[in-house]
Amino acid sequence: MSTIENNKEILNGVSVFSGTRVPVRNLFDYLVAGESIKDFLEDFPTVSFEQVRHILQSAEVAIENYQAA
Question: Which residues pair with 16 in a beta bridge?
């Protein structure tokens, strides 16, 4: 199962955590604001820790690939 879903029928195609209506952007907004992953998961119980972990690992790989280019 994919971690991210884009569907025009869900929030006009905004990237959301699969199986939810929670935008992926919300996770990064929480982290930038100094909130914890625990706080995020408590506020968005439809998102799993595994989904968050996968998103953060994917972001790490994207940053490493960008720096290597």
Answer: 5, 23
Tokens standing for residue 47: 């998102």
Crossing angle of helices 24-32/49-68, nearest 10°?
80
Q: Which two tokens stand for residue 39?
A: 């706080």
Tokens linked to 17: 């955590």
Domains along the chain with CATH numbers: 4-68 (1.10.10.10)
pTM of the model: 0.87
* Rounded Cα gap, residues 10 and 20, in angstroms: 9
- Count CB-CB contacts under 10 A for residue 45: 9
1: pLDDT strictly greater than 70 = no
Q: Are 37 and 48 in contact (CB under 8 A)?
A: no
